[in-house]
Specification:
By secondary structure, this protein is an alpha/beta fold. Helices cover about 55% and strands about 15% of the residues. The protein folds into 3 domains: about 150 residues, Rossmann fold (3-Layer(aba) Sandwich); about 45 residues, no CATH class; about 50 residues. Helix 9 packs antiparallel against helix 10.
Length: about 290
């Protein structure tokens, strides 16, 4: 039996595409390589000898990261069997997949039957870069301007998760892609691939358990840092207040804490809003002085 050889190439920005690439390679007993920032013309030679080459990248302002470089290398190396996957934060749907398909491939490529699969990723606001935060901020402002009833389900979900770290990734997203690649295998190749894949997946799950523990520790560290920053901001704000402003602020803060302790949601909401408004007002007044 001649083994069916699969290569998974990818470019990632925050790590989720890398996770999907490893899952796909495990499920198909394939090789996996990260392209990094190198031009894909340098990677053309590595595609030689594979029955299937899969390329994946994260979505950046509609475009699949590295897609143009990969296409150039694919043409140069005459790669025939190719599949693509992309990773984004929007919910998985046929509409989302088609949008990315038309954003990244020509009509001629689509007519020739290019295969693109969509995998939902992760939204980590803290981990975003400056430019990404500005882009996401603009998108969120546009969504916020809409009446709640006019927002799509995807927009409402993104708005709710915006300032949190939400991971929507899952192995079930790769199933259509894995099924597609397996359709190129004969019976013996398929049997062998699934046997070895089961062993690789078991090892990967053990690694992910350890990674989950490490990530939980990282989240605790972030929460503690965020708490420290909030406390520092409050101390700085109080320092700028006059004596009367401080007395009123602390009285209102005590009322807020009492309302929360009594679980009076209506009263608590009113007091929280009053404290926040007064805090902003007193800060402005202090700056004027």
């Amino acid at each position: 039996m001649e083994e069916f050889r699969t290569l998974v190439l990818y470019r990632t920005q925050h790590g989720t595409t890398k996770k999907y690439a490893n899952w796909i390679a495990d499920a198909l007993n394939g090789d996996v390589m990260e392209a990094g920032k190198r031009n894909f013309n340098e990677w053309a030679s590595v595609m030689t000898g594979y029955d299937m080459v899969i390329y994946g990248g994260n979505i950046r302002v509609g475009g699949i990261n590295g897609i143009k470089d990969f296409k150039a290398a694919k043409i140069k190396n005459h790669v025939e069997n190719v599949a693509y996957f992309c990773v984004g934060s929007y919910p998985d749907s046929e509409g989302t997949r088609l949008e990315h398909l038309h954003d990244n491939f020509t009509e001629s490529e689509i007519e020739d039957g290019v295969e693109l699969f969509y995998c939902r990723g992760r939204l980590d606001y803290i981990g975003l870069g400056f430019l990404e935060k500005r882009i996401m901020g603009g998108l969120m402002k546009a969504i916020e301007k809409k009446y709640p009833e006019d927002r799509t389900e995807a927009e409402a979900e993104l708005l709710e998760a915006y300032y949190d770290d939400v991971d929507w990734s899952g192995r079930y997203y790769i199933e259509p892609l894995v099924k597609y690649v397996k359709s190129f295998m004969d019976e013996e190749q398929l049997e062998y691939t699934e046997k070895v894949a089961a062993e690789r997946i078991a090892l990967r799950l053990k690694e992910e358990e350890q990674e989950a523990v490490e990530w939980e520790e990282e989240m605790k560290r972030r929460e503690e840092l965020h708490k420290q920053n909030e406390e520092k901001e409050e101390r700085d704000k109080i320092r700028r207040m006059s004596k009367k402003q401080k007395e009123k602020y602390f009285a209102m803060k005590a009322a807020k804490e009492m309302a929360e302790a009594e679980e009076d949601e209506a009263l608590s909401a009113d007091v929280v809003e009053s404290v926040d408004d007064y805090s902003e007002f007193s800060d402005e007044e202090s700056q004027k002085k």
